[in-house]
Amino acid sequence: MARRELGPAGLAVVQAVEPWTRSGRVRVACSGGPDSLALAAAVAHLAGRDASLALRAEALTVDHGLQAGSARVADDVARRLDDLGLPTRVAAVTVDRADPAGLEAAARTARYAALSTGLVDGDVVLLGHTLDDQAETVLLGLARGSGTRSLAGMAPGVALASGALLVRPLLGLRRATTADACAEWGLPAWHDPQNLECRFARVRVRERVMPVLEAELGPGVAEALARTAELARADADELDAVAARVVGSRDGTPQELPVPSLSGLPEAIGGRVLRRWLIGLGVPEPSFGHVRAVRALVTDWHGQAGVDLPGGIRIVRERGVLRQGPRDDG
């Protein structure tokens, strides 16, 4: 990438990224698509002007092994980033195709595990999600009926167990801006063929639903959905904090929850308390139906035997408390 004055799109990307490059190791997740390529190019541009960042910045491209030729694509991306002056390595991962959450979720789990390896407190991983990705995420959450947390979309930053952060600095920029930035820098982007496969719900939202919404409701739908995510996240964060204080225990998840302490809670808090408690007991991703059934042990008690949940867990009400009981599978 030649050293020259930044164009308007490249400048917008660099300005969004720069605050996250001031300390710690900076690892860029790059698939070679326009969004992550613009992200990596912005870090390379900043590293070219900052010797300290040049020593701390790197890129990682993940080979999921889900498509023919994926290793070659990953190697090509790594070479392109190396040519920009951004040291890059390829991480080959194994995706659990039998994951009940689906192939996309399994690939994301494997990818994030690779991206977070070896990081410490103060390091950051930069992800290339844009405002368009956020809008699509909100629509998918709305379609699932998943509540405020799902409508909150993707968080701008997520803390890892190591103390490092996963950061999405481009959530305020449109996808067209990253494409324009790549064009300004003369960088040919790779386009994942799976992004055109309408068997994936996200692709259908991107290719079919969003254009109809923009055509029928007028421009600005994506921005409105992203704004909804920001507002919903503030509400969800506050409600989750209240629920955490109710469930919180110095020794981890309490084994019992007193029914009287739950019966007086408003629905917005009570459901969150129970969901957090169930996850702590080992229930994988309890659904709305699961939480509602357990809440009925509090609000609609008529001697039920208990509620069977995923993970081999049964919740029963006995002597005025909710607790985990033995399953009756026979």
Automatic annotation (TrEMBL):
Keyword terms, alphabetized: ATP-binding, Cytoplasm, Ligase, Nucleotide-binding, tRNA processing
Specify the enzyme's EC class, one word. ligase
Locate the residues binding ATP.
Answer: S31, G32, G33, P34, D35, S36
Identify a single GO molecular function assigned to this protein: tRNA(Ile)-lysidine synthase activity
Query: In its keyword annotation, does this UniProt entry include ATP-binding?
Result: yes
What PANTHER family does this protein map onto?
TRNA(ILE)-LYSIDINE SYNTHASE-RELATED
**Family to which this protein belongs:** Belongs to the tRNA(Ile)-lysidine synthase family.
What protein am I looking at?
tRNA(Ile)-lysidine synthase
Q: Which gene encodes it?
A: tilS
